[in-house]
């Protein structure tokens, strides 16, 4: 008989929701055992001992938990019903698209893809890396350039990255300007201006349509030198212009040219790389990624050869493993900001991997002919609509177009837009006399008829037609010729391809990913459900506000909850990555000082242990970074050095950026003194919120002295990492900084009028994934969030206690406790035996684990963060693996085997290696079935250890032909 008692999870208490018991891994009896191992009697005792009294919150979080997951789904349905999903023909970089169901089900909704981490361990990320290499190939082929990155955050921020890249590379003199065409999308121009101000880069906006020589270029720039030019292609008015003369003039002048280009249009139009652009940027949104009220979407950047070492973000390259087999990895990682810190040229620390994978698979699924067919239908619909409007006496712009029409209706724009709205269609009012209409993959003849009715003209007659553009505008070069784009067009083939790639990866659905500083916790299925609901996913970000009341309610409620959790007064959800949140917070600090007349405050103090993004973001915000020492014994901020640095820079001090708990995994008892010292000197305190999972319900940064924090919703609040993106990095501030939060030129509700400008393309950033965090907070409630923190701290201390005798725990706080993560020191082992942190990380793959964070924040160490979602069995499995690996290290230390010949140095081992000639000093079973590994549940790495140096010396960053590695 069915037992109803089984419907409730065990270990329920009156104060915790049923969902909390499912989210948290250890059961009550496990908690007792783990506390005993640590030497404590209760979670309260653990919190009291670990967290300094000075910062402990006296009051509980005032957030009510939902009764059940079913209730939350019902509540979300009610909120979704407040949105009105009409036909969007607004354009401006956001278009309706059809997500192939095989991709929706097997990528977007598949935890094998969405729970994966950034592919810093490439041997267990080969599927993801191949998908990203496909993405890079799509971008390079379509843009006609040589090299593309594996995605950026969105089109607007990609354009801003192009601005700084052009300034670095151009030899134009200091004071030269960025020249931007006036028909660039308004949100893109807004983000460019936001990013340009702190860097002191002048931006000039002009009509570049007639610029055909150097004199005209200088005239457009107000007779100033130009370091870079940015054009939209096709432009914001829909015009497809020939920019050859403009590009030639810019190059003669010594400037570079960036084209913000539409990938679908490029299947028919001349690629930017063929008419002279040095850089192309844009979004891959219309390649099968829903609009989602603004995101997340994968931006892109491609460049000419020679610019690859200046390319921001991540770059996937092809290398070989130790037996010569083809293998993929992140290439040229020394370019990345988290390594370069204050010398960084960009602060981007993430990508939009999940969305880049979707876009790449859209191209794989349709192939070059399929993409061309979609583009041809889109263009034919636009032609039919233009012909119908003209036949009805309506003036339509006469320049070549792809999918967007500029329609002139003197004095009638509002009336036309209203009439279309009554037909269920959103058009874009450019001004009182002009309406823009964009068609897309989802547009059908009924939509065209509705628009025609709004204008009072006859129904369009659609006939498929190739573009009738001038020859110079028509694409003649081939694209996507690689077999991968010409082999998977049946659903069976596509399904198997996606499964084959997913099987090569290790994601959270396979086992624990114990990454310090990255918080790889459960992404519950209930939290994920609403992401694909059309009420959230099919909204254009610029539709009238009354059509998005449900999404705005999510924004409002989630913002209020985040304020309650952090103790801050206001939140902006616009930043679509943690680095963007950092940048926005620093802009708010700078604007606050300016508003107070303190225009000379530009020094930002940053501890040497800080996240690399901190220093990079400070530089991007126009600040001078001064590094504060950390104590070599405790790892805490050196308060004497801090005091000296504060005094040295008192008159110019903008503030300090500090992570709490520290990046070393310790609750520093001096945090309130640090805040007071900086405030006394007139500075502001920025607390990096990356480690908020150790504070929820126990302490509030906004109440223990901090002025601003960014929060990682893809860490603490359960939005999946998605293989390295999507992310959301809200910025939370106290009241005095609230007037300086981001705003948006196209949405008055998206921020204060006095704000610093937009930091992301969309008013509310990656709005379609906010329901994930909303559901998490609603399901957990205040008591559940507190318990999640307590268990996260318990799990980390349990691992530290079990492993301390095998690997020194580098830094601890009161009573030798850590916060939610601990650092295992391998440096002594390396010195004594030659076994490196890389050897330990790769050997963990054979044991069925993703490695902890390697060599951050201290070189030669492993930083472990188990999160609250891992149960005791998984923690013990990890500890047992680490202890067994220490036993293997001990054999090297004893001289039984040389490090170079050890099972550690040659890890990971593939199934194929068992079939080849075996010359190792250890046996096959020891290689692939070490202690604790279940042969029936074995994860097999698809490649051996990868040669990173080979990949950097022989840079290949697009799909290589099959014969490239036959030798």
From TrEMBL:
Keyword Transferase in annotation: no
Positions where N6-(pyridoxal phosphate)lysine occurs in the chain: 715
GO BP terms in the entry: glycine decarboxylation via glycine cleavage system
Single GO MF annotation: glycine dehydrogenase (decarboxylating) activity
GO CC terms: cytosol; glycine cleavage complex
Enzyme class: oxidoreductase
Cofactor names: pyridoxal 5'-phosphate
Keyword terms: Oxidoreductase, Pyridoxal phosphate
Domain Glycine dehydrogenase C-terminal: 788-909
InterPro entries per UniProt: GcvP, GDC-P_C, GDC-P_N, GDC_P, PyrdxlP-dep_Trfase, PyrdxlP-dep_Trfase_major, PyrdxlP-dep_Trfase_small
Signal peptide (UniProt feature, chain positions): none
Domain Glycine cleavage system P-protein N-terminal: 22-454, 485-742
Catalytic reactions on record: N(6)-[(R)-lipoyl]-L-lysyl-[glycine-cleavage complex H protein] + glycine + H(+) = N(6)-[(R)-S(8)-aminomethyldihydrolipoyl]-L-lysyl-[glycine-cleavage complex H protein] + CO2
Listed EC numbers: 1.4.4.2
Task performed by this protein: The glycine cleavage system catalyzes the degradation of glycine. The P protein binds the alpha-amino group of glycine through its pyridoxal phosphate cofactor; CO(2) is released and the remaining methylamine moiety is then transferred to the lipoamide cofactor of the H protein.
PANTHER family linked to this entry: GLYCINE DEHYDROGENASE (DECARBOXYLATING), MITOCHONDRIAL, GLYCINE DEHYDROGENASE, DECARBOXYLATING
Complexes and interactors: The glycine cleavage system is composed of four proteins: P, T, L and H.
NCBIfam families found in the cross-reference section: gcvP (TIGR00461), PRK00451.1 (NF001696), PRK04366.1 (NF003346)
Family of this protein: Belongs to the GcvP family.
Identification of the protein by name: Glycine dehydrogenase (decarboxylating)
Species annotation: Phycicoccus elongatus Lp2
